[in-house]
Design brief:
heterodimer, A: DNA polymerase, domain 1, Dna Ligase, domain 1, 3 domains, 4-stranded antiparallel β-sheet, globular, B: alpha+beta, DNA Polymerase III, Chain A, domain 2, 8-stranded antiparallel β-sheet
Chain lengths: 425, 372
């Protein structure tokens, strides 16, 4: 094995002599050069334009054209390929805006089942590298490769480079890898050289590298927190680095300490493989903004049924229900109720969501509605017989029967009265 | 206002009313007790806006009038005065302060005007009836333990009282449930109660009512409407708002076809359950009951601690059955029973079980099993 810091070719995985610009074996310029290369073992692996990459793989005619994965007229962009990104299209952008920016784009409706299947294959490959895989979503995960040198006959950097080229060869999609000594920097690194990137951030340069970045790049700092920090004169991470830890704690409490630590490259969170599902939710954006209950309730009911179905599939039950609304001027409201009895029944989730929605109805127009169930427990604790709920047994039996019919004849085989289309007035 | 009265009488009355006053409240007047002197008596009143207690006590009234004083402070002062002392209260002309004198002690207390004190008792009462204090005590005591703490199901946070026609007799029933257990106690309905609306009396009110029943031989008169209830104990009157909600149709959860009958010696059973549950963990409080002909085996298994088994001779001749219950719930119910034996009526390991003193007893308990 070459000494620490020697270049490693990401294509043929052979070591190159120090100072080489290209791999002497295969001529590739993709050399991995970093003085701490073999000392780092926390990685973040992120698939590049995941949904779009899968669609391009399965339909070669899409290869050189801009592709956007997203819902109909009023949905949002789930993913877009790198060609579409050159036009300015971004994830989570409203579809109409994306179409305006990139009129020649091919829009593909998402096929979640297919993406989930590929995601599982990628996950399985990760688990051959280390048991310490912490998935963040269907297409990204943290990996802790500490102590795997002997097993994989190479440093974590070499193992990851091999992993990336195997995914590319076997699954036909590309990934970007970030390698560092902690989760925060590994995630930052994977995003620095997308697509097909491999970025290493070592201890030596961490602080200097963070300094010029805006505070919004820190994990968990969104719009509101950014404004709050800006009000305190903190815009770049350097501004936080310049302050004492104690001052940050005084001004922003516990969160201040977290920000100071991350800004200085200190992140002690371990990669924990069994991060459980925290919530299950479903939401939809309307073709046209809606304000009245008559139109919203059937949609809400359908979402509750979807969430209930996913709870049952995952054998989970929830004790909190959250309603999410987005107004026509893009303000998001959430309302929730907790302390419920663990349930996985749409017939139990819907009344709670409806009660949360009722006070919000009136003059406001909404463009999106969503419902989520959190505070999850094991499915075996769901809807336990309850002396204070004489209707429960009947509701449970009805829903179980409906589920059985749907499993056999399809999702629309049987619908509750509320879900039926009403004649338009 | 200017009055003099016995320390003992004042202390007893303050003892009754001051418990209603919340220790922490954002509305200053709610920390106070209302004092109104008139004729030959002093009226004391305290409230938390949901519940109000008033009491009248004999006093030597020099000048009629009223004021309000911090309830807990006043109670503590009077409590610390020597036994047999006389207490005089002098609110003066301008108000704002009150002078309390007893022996050589003098307290100048900040008061708030009586006109600011909220009044709960307004409103028409539609039904009135009188029952023995012992009966009221029984209705509350035997159901209170099953009241739920769940905030989301606020309609379970009290005792549901209603009348019902059973085999041609009108009965007054008290019911409470938290979903895991249900307690139902009945007495023959007193005249005047028949036709009353079903009402949910909040937990705090029933707790106070129990404390106010001092003499079980006495009688209590109840006035109620669809949103208030008033308990008259002679000198003390407690008025409470009712919980505005619908109590579940509990009759449907009381099983009718449980045909496996088990009779146990109550105290033996209680002690055995208590013993085996010693090793149960905080989380899993399940005790398993294995029933075979004439024999009950109680067992608890805690993977962290070990297991415990105890065998009892019982009256049981149905098909063998294994069923689990929360040990604490079993003991709560066993503690409420009166007779030497307890009757269990069971169906199967997943269905609710009925526990009573005997068939047709006034108190009936339903308990949900646990998986074991």
């Amino acid at each position: 094995m070459a000494g620490t810091g020697a270049p490693l070719c990401r294509d043929c995985l052979s070591d190159a002599p120090a100072g080489a610009r290209r791999c002497p074996s295969c001529g590739s310029p993709r050399l991995l050069i970093h003085p701490e290369r073999d000392a780092l073992s926390i990685a973040h692996v992120d698939c590049d334009a995941f949904y779009a990459a899968i669609e391009k793989r399965d339909d070669p005619s899409l290869r050189d054209r801009p592709v956007i994965i997203g819902g109909g007229q009023r949905g949002v962009v789930a993913t877009c390929c790198y060609i579409a990104r050159t036009c300015g299209v971004r994830s989570a952008m409203p579809m109409f805006k994306a179409r305006a920016l990139c009129p020649e784009a091919i829009v593909v409706k998402p096929d979640m089942a297919k993406y989930a299947a590929v995601g599982r294959l990628v996950r399985a490959r990760m688990l051959t590298l280390t048991p310490l895989v912490e998935p963040l979503s269907i297409d990204e995960a943290f990996l802790d490769l500490s102590g795997t040198q002997r097993l994989h006959h190479g440093s974590p950097a070499a193992t990851l480079a091999r992993f990336a080229s195997q995914i590319e060869r076997d699954l036909g999609i590309t990934v970007s890898v970030g390698l560092s000594y902690c989760k925060f920097l590994a995630k930052l690194a994977s995003d620095m050289d997308k697509p097909r990137g491999f970025t290493i951030i070592g201890r030596a340069e961490a602080k200097a590298l963070l300094a010029p970045l805006p505070v919004g790049r820190i994990w968990g700092v969104g719009k509101v927190a950014t404004e709050k920090l800006a009000a305190g004169g903190l815009r770049a991470i350097a501004d936080i680095q310049a302050r004492a830890e104690s001052d940050m704690i005084r001004d922003f409490g516990r969160e201040g300490q977290r920000l100071w630590r991350l800004s200085n490259g200190v992140d002690t969170r371990a990669v924990s493989p069994d991060r459980e599902t925290r919530s299950i939710s479903s939401e939809t954006t309307f073709e046209q903004d809606i304000s009245d209950a008559e139109a919203l309730l059937p949609i809400l009911h359908a979402l509750c049924e979807k969430v209930a179905h996913r709870l049952k599939t995952a054998d989970l039950a929830g004790r909190s229900v959250t309603l999410k609304l987005k107004t026509s001027d893009f303000r998001t409201k959430t309302r929730s109720r907790s302390g419920l009895r663990a349930t996985q029944l749409a017939a139990r989730i819907f009344p709670v969501a409806r009660d949360l929605l009722t006070p919000e109805l009136g003059r406001t127009l909404y463009r999106l509605i969503g419902v989520g169930v959190s505070d999850l427990v094991d499915g075996s604790d769901a809807d336990q017989a309850d002396l204070a709920d004489p209707d429960l047994a009947r509701l449970k039996a009805t829903e179980t029967a409906m589920d059985a019919i749907r499993a056999k004849f399809g999702g629309k085989a049987v619908v509750k009265g509320i879900g039926l289309e009403r004649p338009r007035k | 206002m200017k009055i003099t009265l016995e320390r003992a009488a004042l202390l007893k009355s303050l003892g009754h009313v001051h418990r209603v006053v919340e220790r922490r409240t954002t509305i200053p007047i709610l920390s106070n007790v209302l004092l109104q002197a008139d004729g030959r008596s002093l009226l004391l009143k305290a409230t938390d806006l949901d519940l109000e207690v008033t009491e009248t006590v004999a006093a030597d009234v020099g000048m009629a009038g009223g004021t309000t004083l911090p309830a807990h402070t006043l109670y503590d002062i009077v409590r610390k005065l020597p036994e047999g002392a006389q207490v005089s209260l002098d609110a003066g002309e301008d108000g704002g302060q009150l002078l309390l004198k007893s022996g050589r002690s003098r307290f100048m207390l900040q008061s708030l005007p009586e006109s600011d004190f909220p009044d709960l008792s307004a409103g028409e009462m539609t039904h009135k009836f009188t029952l023995a204090a012992a009966d009221l005590k029984k209705l509350i005591e035997k159901t209170q333990f099953a009241i739920s703490n769940e905030e989301t199901r606020y309609y379970l946070n009290g005792i549901y009282m209603h009348t019902s026609e059973i085999d041609g007799h009108s009965m007054l029933r008290a019911v409470a449930t938290d979903g895991h257990r249900l307690a139902r106690v009945e007495i023959p309905a007193p005249a005047g109660a028949v036709g009353m609306p079903g009402v949910i009396v909040p937990r705090k009110a029933v707790n106070e009512v129990l404390k106010l029943i001092e003499d079980a031989e006495s009688e209590v008169t109840i006035d109620l409407s669809s949103n208030k209830i008033r308990f008259n104990f002679g000198q003390v009157v407690l008025t409470s708002k009712l919980i505005d909600g619908t109590f579940p149709d509990y009759a449907r959860v009381i099983p009718a076809g449980n045909d496996k009958r088990l009779v146990v010696e109550r105290s033996d059973f209680q002690r055995a359950v208590d013993r085996v549950s010693t090793i149960s963990s905080e989380r899993g409080r399940a005790v398993k009951m294995a029933l075979t002909d004439g024999k009950l085996v109680l067992s608890v298994t805690n993977p962290d601690a070990g297991n415990a088994v105890e065998e009892l001779e019982v009256d049981y001749d149905s098909t063998p059955l294994d069923i689990g219950f929360n040990a604490r719930y079993l003991l709560d119910i066993a503690n409420q029973l009166d007779s030497d034996t307890a009757l269990f009526r069971l169906a199967d390991s997943g269905s609710p079980t009925i526990i009573q003193d005997r068939d047709g007893a006034a108190a009936l308990y339903v308990l949900m099993p646990m998986r074991v």
